[in-house]
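Q&A log
Question type: sequence-to-structure
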Amino acid sequence: MKLSNEQRADILIQALPYIQKYNNKIVVIKYGGSAMQSETLKKSVMRDIVLLSLIGIKVVLVHGGGAEITEALNAAGKKTEFIDGLRVTDAETAEIVQMVLSGKINKGLVNLIQSIGGSAIGLSGADGHMISAKTLDKRLGFVGEITEISTSPITDLLEKGYIPIIATVGCDNKGNIYNINADTAAAKIAEALKAESLISMTDTKGILNNKDDGNSLIPEIKVKDADKLISQGIISGGMIPKIDCCIAAIKNGVKKVVIIDGRVPHAILIEILTDEGIGTMFI
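Response status: OK
Response body:
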């Protein structure tokens, strides 16, 4: 459907209240899943982020890269093992994780944003000890529990007009590198930055009342009701740790937390700049 110039102008005017609301505010976006695997979607997401940055929203992009880490480990002849949804990470695996996240994926995203006309700088959680960590569970090896977030590297870039793109590896004072869960890192970073919003991109429409019915989306979940939804099995499996991160972020000062479907083109813009939004919001 071709839009007239008047219709295009009307769409922009409808977005004005949201542009005003988020102007000069920090939005943390956790990026991964299908949106990262599809080159078409990846470019679409980066365009959306550049647009948000150009209208005065301070976007912080936090990414994982589980599929590419597994691919690199397979190429190195290393078997991948998970415990409670977390990758068992020995010293060699930690090096591969750092190489894939901080090198290949991070710099690829920076380059893509630059090619679209945005300004981005890639960071590893180990840069400036931005993400300090300790061992989460000895069974998992170098999987980290975040002990502190240093926001200075992020805020310095935001003040200079850059989009910080953060690879989720952490470090300790002994020089150890830790594999950090991307959902956890995004939530902790959003808390430390006192972000206006945390948007988590997933491979589902959000939280479904019936996992087999895509039309049963729960648009809002009150924090106090989350445990009940877990006990009922509505929230289950790998979604539970994501929900825990969302709840922690809300409790620790992030004003708005939402899970959206990263497979939907322009999902971020729909969430931030329209009346209806998209996905499941935690309140």
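Response note: The radius of gyration is 19 Å.
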